[in-house]
Design goal:
With 290 residues, this protein is mainly β. It has no helices and 34 strands. The N terminus is likely disordered.
Length: 290
């Protein structure tokens, strides 16, 4: 059961933090009972798509479609929907099936998956053996991955031909990888500690630290990083932290340890698949108005 927590207006936020939907214009779209809308989000040219795996649906710009998905993205100018069985559809047409996929990423016309056997360039059917690959991202000229051995993780990179480029940052179990403004980042959410602040590290050594309980670094997207809804800070809130040191975006309602997902291109999207509505974890997509 997920409890809804509201931001106490009497308690001030930290300097540089602003509340989405109050201080910063944002549109909130909620799913139906049990939909878990926002488990995956992607944006392109002002439009967005989001998975709602609880309802076996995909939403597009606020309206549900009958197409099931657990992960979504944009492959060139086309929509990508991936089902729970690993079936990949491009603009509704079945293209590939990767039932063993652990994570997905897309960039341009490159679709990659993390599998138990390693890094799979899906459209080329090229498998690069990598032990312990848990997360992937597609950068402008390379693919990034979170690689874990026991409890130690790092961010590694490969060319689009599958050649290893080496380690670019330290990371942690359950972290995300991503590229922003040409810099590669890797997350270390510190899940082992209930009050873990989490952090993200860039390839140039820059580090962004969270507050106790943030578990920062669990997701990266749109120039931001986030973790979970945080009951340890006052007022309780989820914090979406920019990689460039700008304004921190606060989400004032959520469920304890509720995971967040970030996406978008020119507009930041926040997926909150366990946001409460209708008395159940209906999920939500939050579109930050530019």
């Amino acid at each position: 059961m997920y409890a809804l927590t509201l931001l106490a207006c009497a308690a001030p936020l930290l300097p540089g933090e602003r509340v989405l939907g109050v201080d910063i214009p944002a549109t909130f779209t909620y799913g139906g009972p049990g939909d878990r809308l926002g488990a995956s989000v992607a944006g392109r040219d002002g439009s967005w798509i989001a998975s709602a795996p609880g309802a076996e649906q995909t939403w597009r710009d606020g309206a549900a479609t009958d197409a099931p998905s657990v992960w979504v993205g944009f492959w060139g100018g086309s929509e990508v929907f991936v089902s729970a069985e690993g079936q990949v559809r491009i603009d509704g047409a079945a293209r590939w099936a990767v039932p063993e996929a652990l994570a997905w990423a897309v960039g341009g016309e490159r679709l990659v998956a993390a599998t138990p056997a390693g890094l799979l360039f899906v459209e080329r059917e090229l498998l690069v053996p990598v032990a312990g690959l848990e997360a992937v991202a597609v950068g402008a000229e390379r693919v990034l991955g979170l690689v874990c051995d026991d409890d130690a993780c790092v961010g590694d990179a490969w060319t689009f031909d599958g050649a290893a480029l080496g380690t670019f940052a330290s990371a942690g179990v359950g972290g995300a990888v991503g590229e922003w403004d040409g810099r590669a980042w890797a997350g270390a959410p510190d899940w082992a500690d209930p009050e873990g602040p989490g952090r993200v590290e860039a390839e140039d050594g820059a580090v962004v630290e969270g507050l106790p309980g943030d578990h920062l670094g669990a997701t990266l997207g749109g120039g931001f990083t986030a973790g979970t809804f945080n009951k340890w800070v006052v007022p309780a809130r989820a914090r979406v932290v920019p990689l460039d040191g700008g304004t921190v975006l606060a989400i004032e309602a959520g469920a304890e340890l509720q995971p967040l997902v970030l996406g978008g291109d020119t507009t930041l999207l926040v997926g909150a698949p366990y946001a409460a509505a209708h008395g159940e974890p209906s999920g939500a997509v939050i579109e930050v108005v530019p």
